[in-house]
Amino acid sequence: MSESRPKKYYWEDFAVGTVREFGGMTLEKADIVRFARDWDPQPFHVDEEAAKRSPYGGLIASGWQTCAAAMRMCCDAYLLDAASVGSPGVENVRWVKPVRPGDTLRVRLEVLEARPLKSKPGVGLVKNRWQLFNQDGEEVMQMEGYGMFLQRPRG
Description:
Blueprint: E1 19-27, H1 29-39, H2 43-46, H3 48-53, H4 63-77, E2 90-95, E3 103-116, E4 123-133, E5 139-150
Antiparallel strand pairs: 1-3, 2-5, 3-4, 4-5
């Protein structure tokens, strides 16, 4: 996306209580193993036989891959069209249920707080609750995180 492209979403578009649902990303075995080999090579992420002997009873995705999948779906759904200027961080990340090969993930994002930043004129802060669900509607991840967005230009 070109930086000169007009933005569709600004801070004002993230009112408290707003809910966005999107996604439909399937993580296949090869995706899980490839990510884990590069970033989280624990046996239950990269070795099917070791994973069978683990408390999970089979291969599972890294929680960090689940976070990355959520971020990708967020970018595809709206963030690349938003006047985003980054994030000061996330908190309370929880991996509630393992993500397994073949699981299809979707995101539910709810705005919990939205306020202008006194320290950065023209920028607003948005706090979201992220929830990821698998194809059976089971919650697999939850977290709270912040995004900073430019305020809509006047005129």
